[in-house]
Amino acid sequence: GAGVSQSPSNKVTEKGKDVELRCDPISGHTALYWYRQRLGQGLEFLIYFQGNSAPDKSGLPSDRFSAERTGESVSTLTIQRTQQEDSAVYLCASSLLWTRGDNEQFFGPGTRLTVL
Amino acid sequence: AQTVTQSQPEMSVQEAETVTLSCTYDTSESDYYLFWYKQPPSRQMILVIRQEAYKQQNATENRFSVNFQKAAKSFSLKISDSQLGDAAMYFCAYRSARSRGNAGNMLTFGGGTRLMVKP
């Protein structure tokens, strides 16, 4: 009965480096979302995975951002050539198969990324 | 595209008193869900309450209730008998109920309201 977990909890990197953020969804949850939360702001949608279907990448802010998910398991969000504006908390959420939008999204604790 | 607006960056309430947090949204859809999430300093997003747009009755969860005004596109959260543990960021969120095929039904969030509870 573990919840959504994310690692690392905090990540400090230098401008220009690549980073990988990991999300472990709740077992059995086929849907997985990544959101970004800039300081003092609400969450912005980044990308959505549903089983083995092609992901919805409509929220990714640039081609430096990409994400993968194998089946219904772990997902990784990769940011290449990080910029200072990428500094934010990256939150992952998972849910059961979407039906009319009423399945609750369960959130992980997020990864705080700081780009120096 | 849908937008969600929270016009109160910060609110303060005395312990045991009642406070109302405001939220307005813009959509052309008729079938959707609205949510209030709580985010304490731990960063964990916690679902507080959910409202289905096709239901006229306002949702309630213990000390938390909403005032849903569909025509006005308003969705406020009332916290009664405020407790110190209620201090957190509160986010209003919208989610379409319409199938988007392969695309997900992501949540659209407002900017948040920081609630402070005074002992």
Give a description of the structure:
The complex is a heterodimer of chains A (116) and B (119). Chain A is mainly β. Chain A has a single domain (5-98, 107-115), classed as Sandwich (Immunoglobulin-like), CATH 2.60.40. Chain A has no helices and ten strands. In chain A, the strands form two sheets. In chain A, strands 2, 4, 5, 8, 9 and 10 form a six-stranded mixed beta sheet that branches. In chain A, strands 1-3-7-6 form a four-stranded antiparallel beta sheet, with no helix packed on it. In chain A, a hairpin with a 5-residue loop joins strand 6 (65-69) and strand 7 (75-79). The N and C termini of chain A lie far apart (37 Å). By secondary structure, chain B is an all-beta fold. Chain B has a single domain (3-118), classed as Immunoglobulins (Immunoglobulin-like, Sandwich). Chain B is globular. The termini of chain B are far apart. Chain A binds chain B through residues 31, 33, 35, 40-45, 48-50, 53-54, 56, 58-59, 89, 91, 93, 98, 100-102, 104-105, 107-110, 112, and chain B through 4, 6, 32-33, 42-45, 47, 50, 52, 91, 93, 95-99, 102-112.
Strand content of chain A: over 45%
Largest interface: A-B, 31 and 29 residues
Number of strands of chain B: 12
Number of domains of chain B: 1
Total beta-strand segments of chain A: 10
User: What is the CATH top level name of chain A?
Assistant: Mainly Beta
Q: What is the level-2 CATH architecture name of chain B?
A: Sandwich
The secondary-structure element order of chain B is EEEEEEEEEEEE
Q: Rounded to an integer, what's the Rg of chain A over CA atoms?
A: 14 Å
Roughly how many Å is the radius of gyration of chain B? Answer: 14 Å
Dominant shape of chain B: globular
Summed up, the helix count of chain B is 0
Per the CATH scheme, the topology name of chain A is Immunoglobulin-like
Largest sheet of chain B: 6 strands, mixed
Based on helices, strands and strand pairing, what is the structural class of chain A?
Answer: mainly beta
The CATH H-level homologous superfamily of chain B = Immunoglobulins
The overall number of domains of chain A is: 1
| Helix content, binned percent of chain A | under 10%
